[in-house]
Amino acid sequence: MQHLDEMMEYFEQEEETNIKEFLFRLLSKWHWFVLFGFLGFTGGYLMSEFSQPRYKMTSTLLVNEETKSLGMDQLFEGFDLGGKTNIENHILMLKSYTLNRQALENLDLKISWFRKGIFTDESLYGDYPYFIEVKGTADNMTGIDLHISQLSEQTYMLEAEGEFVNEALGLEAKGSHGVPFENEYFSFTLNKNDAFQSSEDDHYYFVFNDLNELTQSYLERLGVSLATKKADGINLSLEGSNPAREVDYMNELIRVYIDYGLSEKNRTSENTVRFIDIQLGQIVDSLSLAGQNFTDFRSKKGIVDLSQEAGLVVQKLEELESGKALAERRLEYYQNLQAYMGNTEQMKLMVAPSVVGIMDAGLNALVVKLGTLYGRKSTLSYIAKENNPSLLMLNQEISNTISSLEENLNNLLNNAEVELKSLNRRMDNIHMELASLPKTEQELINIKRRFDLNNELYTFLLQKRAEAAITTASNVSDAQVLDPARLETAEKVGPKTAINIIVGLILGLIIPLITIVLRDYFDDTIRSTEELEKDSKLPILGEIAHNNYKNEIPIVEHPRSGIAESFRGLRTNLQYLFTGESKKVIAVHSMIPGEGKTFSALNLASIIAMDNKKVLLVACDLRKPRLHYIFETENTKGLSTYLINRHNLKEIIYPTKVKNLSIVNSGPIPPNPAELIGNGEFQRFIDEIKEEFDYIVMDNAPVTLVTDGILAAKYADVNLFVLRQGYSHKNQVKFINQLAEKENIKHISMVLNDVKYSKHGYETTYGRYGYGTGYYEEDIASQRKLWHIFGKN
């Protein structure tokens, strides 16, 4: 349990350390955050300053709860047509594509005008620099900017810029005012508006709008919602850059919506009037002819009235014929209803059952319900897709209503047929009685019967027509406009300067943050000794500070600098690795070129020599030597010539300007460096120089490129691998670990070179040793010089 607690504490410390390291990493790049934060702040301000203003227009409608109108109860006897209004239907209508498209067409927004600006273009509405006339059948390309430049009082230059079917469209042509401009893309007439006020520097262009796209644009910006949960009110809102145009659009949409709702309410009564007018047109002629025949017959025959017996027969016959006519109309209505009830358009034309004398409350209810459902479906289908849940539920309700209506109709059809057969039998009996009367009375009865029947039907239809006309006149809209859209109430909603500045500032700060995080994520270079400690169990002897001086041996000219102190620390740590009084041989390695192997070997040898020790620096890199350039000595003899027995030890050793430090150059580059180091002569060389010097420092070739370094490493008491901060990769540490595990090279240690520090620690990482700026005396002087240059106190 104690072991588990220790592990948990270790991981918590590691997590806290990682967070601190990450914060230090961000602090070391503060200047990037300041720069990008300023750019983001400036960008947000400029966006607000030069963006086109946006305004929000609002309007409020009140939807009446009851829709019952005067005369409706007489027209639909036995059924209450009122009921509560479904406010969701009204919201759907206001958001429908059809009504919004109609509003745009009514406002004639097929063309948009703009004034060219420096950063944004100003949208014009109402007052335009030119009048454009388009023939009714002309088809102009939409979405193309047509720029107008006035050449003279009568001529202009037209330039088109845009893209059509992924093909660039370039057009430049002259035109004259009042003369049709026609080509394969456009056909219109341009006239100058002399009343329009403009300056000479103003530049204008116009665009033919695609009404489909424009309608979709308005639908996306139009907001329709309930005013409150308890009130039957609707709030409309619309945002746009041109408040006058948006106000006109909202008010026109409301007008179209009210007209549409009123026309839907009047549809039933208008269908009734239309049906009755057709019936009356057919009856008037029959009634007129029957009346004329009745009058002529009585005058010709001299008959003023019928006998009592004949009068009774006529009365019975008229009653039966009237009943038969009603039964036939009912049967015809049932048959038509049965044929039309699955057709939306035909159902809209069906009249109320009471118009034909049907007083069945159940049938009235089902017919009106079906008509209402079809109306709701027609409204909903404007904006809803086929798989919309509301539309699917509505279709299901229509299907259920049709099933109930079919069942009701089947019973009514059977009853009507039975009733009609019964009336026919009774009429046959009356005709038998009629046959026993005198012939003159029979003829008069037939003429009078036709007249009375047409007259009764004509009177009935006139009454129903009057009722339908009263219903139409008494209908009012379900919605009332409480607050129309007004310019005075337009609210400016954009651009929001504060929000744009905050967003710009945040984006500006996020850019360097993401860059640093991504760079750290994909960067597998070594940044600190802590990373080395995590990836390897080999000893890490220290860190070598970044060389800020233009000198290969800075510790000599700047002995009190930070880099000199880092080499002193390395020298001290090396003492713990040496045991006994034998001569000390240090081999300095690197994995790849550029890690600072030669620099580290040179300064390590120099710092040891400054401790009054005789040190020999040997250039064991026989392929790409550098020491002779640094010390400005000849390289005609050296290690390579010694190993082939051309020169002896004393001939290849050169003294340096550093006290107690001597060097052996590599000598001429041989064709077989690895064979020379491994031929046994190198062992004799090491044995000889051990007798002459206290310490030997070998500058070896990179071990991953050639085998020279590995061959020379077996003669060293310490093999020091140099890794460079931000340059060496972590897989190189794995390779060094493998060398140690396989014992190809013994006594391996590591050192991190070119470490940069800031007041937070590592400049490019997050070390725990943070020397701080100006810790050493010479570094303080250097910093003060920089402060003076940049005006800091």
Q: Can you offer a commentary on this structure?
A:
The chain is of the alpha+beta class. It folds into 4 domains: 2-51 and 495-522, no CATH class; 111-208, no CATH class; 265-471, no CATH class; 529-789, P-loop containing nucleotide triphosphate hydrolases (Rossmann fold), CATH 3.40.50.300. The strands form 5 sheets. Strands 15-22-21-16-20-17-19-18 form an 8-stranded mixed β-sheet, sandwiched between helices. β23 and β24 form a beta hairpin. α2 runs antiparallel to α13 (497-522) and α7 runs antiparallel to α12 (439-474). The protein starts with a helix and ends with a helix. The model is unreliable at 67-84, 764-777 and 780-793 (pLDDT under 50).
Strand neighbour order, sheet with most strands: 15-22-21-16-20-17-19-18
Low-confidence stretches: 67-84, 764-777, 780-793
CA-atom Rg in angstroms: 52 Å
Largest sheet: 8 strands, mixed
For the secondary structure, the number of strands is: 24
* Number of helices in the DSSP assignment: 25
Query: Which fold name is given in CATH as the topology of the largest domain?
Result: Rossmann fold
Distance between the amino and carboxyl termini: 57 Å
Percent range for helical residues? 40-55%
CATH-assigned homologous superfamily of the largest domain? P-loop containing nucleotide triphosphate hydrolases
Approximately what portion of the residues adopt beta-strand conformation?
A: 15-25%
Kindly state the mean pLDDT as a whole number?
Answer: 79
Class based on secondary structure composition and strand pairing: alpha+beta
CATH architecture of the largest domain: 3-Layer(aba) Sandwich
- Classified by CATH, the class of the largest domain is Alpha Beta
Domain count: the total is: 4
Shape: elongated
